[in-house]
């Protein structure tokens, strides 16, 4: 794909203005987020038994609409798009009509079903006029003109698919009125979305007589006058030489070839991998901001095509490739619409498509830009709040280490790194590296550390400010001495006051037999203790707005002196509780193990958002007579 300089695109923008084309009002005003939903085409294009040619029917659409409502719609997937194959002729005014053998009740009937399920209906169409319509020469609705009055002479191809659709001459009276009549009919049927396919320049065509820019403008103009909001996507492999024009007159543009493998799988890695090469050229020009941050010039999204990751046995992708695909689609803020059979989604596919971070990243509209190309790619999103979301991708055929330096994304020093898919946190200095299998990825959120760490000294030794400890390695631990206390002002990992404070109450304090060395072993040595089945509590209050806005996790560290017994402890914050099994004669060895009703030495409470919380520690059982529930320390880790 030809790469254009900023100057070239600016000149293209000026050319749009020079053509006397005005930007439509709601092409950019309403559609501030990429849409989410489902499309029929992948199942039409595959050779998997039971699908392919003939699969697209009224009955199948009812089934898929019902399944969309039951599975993905609660997460925002609400567009239901019927691709090519629904049309079967034309009416007395040359407008498309439904195929009566496959859609005997017509598109309005399907629209009622779809709308009744709380979804928006999309249909497919192409530029130009069908040659059969031209030969019949019907009148254009509401005008004195006929179809042959608006077709270009001599006859020319009307779109990238060939001569079966003829080119419209939009300088002729009746031409815009014809497109208006088509869109008005779609609107009357209840259509909410239009995919205009075979658009050139693009669709592997650059021939001057197949320039569909006037068609795209005409369709958007028709949408503006129809009285019904309607999304317009143009397809496929649209030329990036005219980005300002596409931004002005469409809501999204397909930037690459079909995702479909046209084989016994819906897609494959080859088709998926194509997007990484072409997205770099398009990424700076996508988003709700509009061209050059000028809303009058419209906006638009880069459409990477269907995200077919919902069924591992049908998709043609490994689990690593499925995760890589959904991650990249979301980083690009592509419209998220799957082409899978919604009746046969597997659990892993559902977890990918409904991951809340992935959906939020896609819908936020902050499109990632390429930091590093080649087989080891890095893409970064500036989230607008001082944080970055970074995707590290191994596109090669073997395992590789993919790295990013903080300086490349405008950061430096220590940064908190949240691994989105693994749901883990670390603090990394200067940069980050991931060892990735072939076609795997790592998605991380990078932010200034927002970590508050509290060590219960017990009968151990207080921690120094420079000591680094915990699962999320951090310094500046706050030392809480004694079995009870209140009003302890808490600093964060930078040593600055957080504004939060802590209070705690326990029956006693104690220490394990672990050797006292700086860092995590010192933090895990002393602890708050319980006697006779009592409950210990720790309350943290006054958490600052970053934590309440972005949410946070609480890590609770637990290791008691239990040389003669195996004990079970229960920790609770609000309605959530986690049990930890502490095996006999096991002290902290230096390795952290997360517990969830299992052996381990820490529990993690996720996705909290209150400005305060109370942690309780209660004994559950012991193989001797001494019921205990230690609290060695806690960490509050902002997202």
From TrEMBL:
<comment type="similarity">
    <text>Belongs to the glycosyl hydrolase 27 family.</text>
</comment>
<dbReference type="GO" id="GO:0005975">
    <property type="term" value="P:carbohydrate metabolic process"/>
</dbReference>
<dbReference type="InterPro" id="IPR013785">
    <property type="entry name" value="Aldolase_TIM"/>
</dbReference>
<keyword id="KW-0326">Glycosidase</keyword>
<dbReference type="Pfam" id="PF16499">
    <property type="entry name" value="Melibiase_2"/>
</dbReference>
<dbReference type="InterPro" id="IPR013780">
    <property type="entry name" value="Glyco_hydro_b"/>
</dbReference>
<feature type="domain" description="Alpha galactosidase C-terminal">
    <location>
        <begin position="374"/>
        <end position="446"/>
    </location>
</feature>
<dbReference type="InterPro" id="IPR002241">
    <property type="entry name" value="Glyco_hydro_27"/>
</dbReference>
<keyword id="KW-0378">Hydrolase</keyword>
<dbReference type="InterPro" id="IPR041233">
    <property type="entry name" value="Melibiase_C"/>
</dbReference>
<keyword id="KW-1015">Disulfide bond</keyword>
<dbReference type="GO" id="GO:0004557">
    <property type="term" value="F:alpha-galactosidase activity"/>
</dbReference>
<keyword id="KW-0732">Signal</keyword>
<dbReference type="Pfam" id="PF17801">
    <property type="entry name" value="Melibiase_C"/>
</dbReference>
<protein>
    <recommendedName>
        <fullName>Alpha-galactosidase</fullName>
        <ecNumber>3.2.1.22</ecNumber>
    </recommendedName>
</protein>
<dbReference type="InterPro" id="IPR017853">
    <property type="entry name" value="GH"/>
</dbReference>
């Amino acid at each position: 794909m030809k790469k254009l300089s900023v100057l070239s695109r600016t000149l293209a923008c000026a050319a749009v203005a020079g053509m006397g084309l005005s930007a439509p009002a709601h092409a950019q005003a309403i559609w501030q987020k990429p849409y989410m939903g489902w499309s029929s085409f992948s199942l039409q294009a595959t050779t998997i038994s039971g699908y392919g040619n003939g699969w697209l029917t009224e009955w199948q659409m009812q089934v898929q609409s019902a399944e969309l409502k039951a599975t993905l719609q609660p997460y925002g997937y609400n567009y239901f798009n019927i691709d090519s194959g629904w049309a079967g002729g034309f009416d007395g005014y040359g407008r498309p009509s439904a195929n009566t053998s496959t859609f005997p009740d017509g598109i309005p009937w399907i629209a009622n079903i779809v709308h009744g399920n709380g979804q928006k209906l999309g249909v497919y169409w192409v530029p130009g006029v069908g040659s059969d319509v031209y030969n019949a020469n019907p009148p254009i609705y509401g005008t004195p003109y006929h179809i042959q009055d608006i077709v270009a002479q001599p006859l020319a191809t009307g779109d990238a698919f060939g001569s079966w659709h003829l080119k419209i001459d939009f300088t002729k009276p009746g031409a815009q009125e014809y497109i208006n009549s088509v869109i008005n009919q779609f609107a009357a049927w209840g259509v909410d979305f239009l995919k205009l396919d075979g658009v050139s320049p693009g669709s592997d065509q650059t021939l001057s007589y197949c320039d569909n820019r006037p068609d795209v403008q005409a369709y958007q103009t028709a949408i503006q006058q129809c009285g019904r909001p309607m999304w317009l996507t143009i397809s496929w492999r649209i030329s990036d030489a005219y980005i300002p024009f596409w931004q002005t007159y469409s809501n999204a543009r397909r930037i690459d070839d079909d995702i479909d493998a046209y084989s016994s799988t819906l897609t494959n890695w080859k088709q998926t991998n194509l997007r990484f090469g072409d997205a770099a050229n398009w990424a700076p020009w996508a988003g709700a901001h509009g061209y050059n941050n000028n809303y009058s010039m419209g906006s638009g999204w880069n459409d990477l095509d269907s995200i077919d990751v919902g069924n591992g046995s049908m998709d043609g992708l490994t689990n690593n490739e499925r995760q890589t695909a959904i991650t990249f689609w979301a980083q690009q803020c592509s419209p998220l619409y799957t082409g899978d059979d919604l009746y046969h989604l597997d659990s892993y596919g559902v977890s990918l498509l409904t991951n809340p971070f992935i959906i939020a990243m896609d819908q936020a509209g902050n499109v990632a830009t390429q930091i590093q190309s080649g087989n080891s790619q890095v893409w970064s999103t500036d989230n607008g709040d001082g944080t970055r979301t970074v995707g590290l991708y191994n596109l090669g055929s073997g395992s590789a280490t993919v790295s990013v330096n903080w300086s490349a994304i405008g950061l430096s020093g220590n940064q908190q790194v949240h691994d989105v898919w693994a749901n883990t946190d670390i603090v990394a200095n200067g940069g980050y590296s991931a060892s990735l299998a072939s076609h795997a990825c790592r998605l991380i959120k990078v932010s200034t550390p927002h970590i508050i760490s509290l060590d219960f000294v017990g009968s151990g030794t207080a921690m120094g400010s420079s000591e680094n400890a915990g699962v999320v390695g951090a310094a500046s631990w706050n030392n809480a001495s004694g079995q009870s206390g209140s009003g302890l002002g808490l600093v964060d990992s930078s040593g600055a006051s957080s504004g939060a404070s802590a209070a705690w109450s326990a029956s006693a304090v104690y220490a394990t037999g672990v050797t006292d060395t700086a860092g995590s072993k010192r933090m895990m040595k002393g602890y708050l203790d319980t006697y006779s089945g009592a409950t210990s509590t720790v309350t943290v209050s006054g958490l600052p707005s970053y934590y309440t806005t972005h949410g946070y996790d609480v890590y609770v560290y637990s290791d008691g002196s239990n040389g003669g017994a195996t004990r079970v402890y229960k920790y609770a914050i609000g309605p959530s509780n986690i049990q930890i099994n502490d095996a006999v004669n096991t002290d902290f060895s230096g390795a952290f193990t997360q517990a969830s009703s299992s052996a381990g030495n820490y529990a993690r409470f996720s996705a909290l958002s209150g400005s305060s919380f109370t942690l309780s520690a209660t004994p559950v059982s012991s193989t001797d007579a001494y019921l205990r529930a230690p609290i060695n320390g806690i960490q509050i880790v902002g997202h």
